[in-house]
């Protein structure tokens, strides 16, 4: 039994090293809010409220709804941004978008919305 205790201690120590900022939230900036998407020029025009005064950028992610896939980073936009236009999108497809504020301390929780491309 004593052979497993060092391994368990290493596993627990490693797990303790992972911060909340590696999983969203934690020490990062305040999350954006009021994420909306509207149809514009064959794509989705995203807008949000910037609730942080210490972000360095925003990360915009997209996933096609109903497709077995993960979110993909489609853009990073500068600090104080409150919009992004994603085009072209496939007509009739549903997409899920997330926007997170980022800084050197981590990332915010994500704000998410579903958009049905016309």
CATH architecture: Sandwich
The class by helix and strand makeup works out as mainly beta
Taking Cα atoms only, what radius of gyration do you get, to the nearest Å? 18 Å
Mean pLDDT across residues: 82
| C-alpha termini separation | 62 Å
Oligomer: single chain
| The level-1 CATH class | Mainly Beta
SSE blueprint and pairings:
Elements: H1 4-17, E1 33-40, E2 43-49, E3 57-64, E4 72-78, E5 83-86, E6 94-103, E7 106-107, E8 111-116
Antiparallel strand pairs: 1-2, 2-5, 3-4, 3-6, 6-7, 6-8
Features:
five-stranded antiparallel beta sheet; 12% helix; 118 residues; single chain; mainly beta; Immunoglobulin-like
Short summary of the structure?
The chain has 1 helix and 8 strands, in the order H-E-E-E-E-E-E-E-E.
Describe this structure in words.
The chain has 118 residues and is mostly beta strands. The chain has one domain (4-116): Immunoglobulin-like (Sandwich), CATH 2.60.40.10. The protein has 1 helix and 8 strands. It has one helix spanning 4-17, and strands at residues 33-40, 43-49, 57-64, 72-78, 83-86, 94-103, 106-107, 111-116. Strands 3, 4, 6, 7 and 8 form a 5-stranded antiparallel sheet that branches. A 3-stranded antiparallel sheet has the order 1-2-5, with no helix packed on it.
């Amino acid at each position: 039994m004593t052979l497993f205790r060092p391994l368990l201690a290493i596993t627990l120590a490693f797990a303790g090293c992972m911060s909340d900022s590696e999983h969203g939230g934690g020490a990062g900036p305040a999350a954006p809010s009021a994420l909306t998407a509207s149809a514009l020029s064959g794509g989705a025009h995203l807008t949000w409220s910037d609730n942080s005064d210490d972000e360095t950028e925003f990360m915009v992610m997209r996933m096609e709804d109903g497709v077995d896939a993960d979110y993909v980073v489609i853009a990073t936009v500068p600090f104080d941004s409150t919009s992004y236009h994603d085009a072209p999108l496939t007509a009739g497809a549903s997409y899920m978008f997330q926007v997170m504020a980022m800084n050197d301390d981590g990332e915010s929780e994500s704000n998410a919305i579903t958009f049905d491309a016309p």
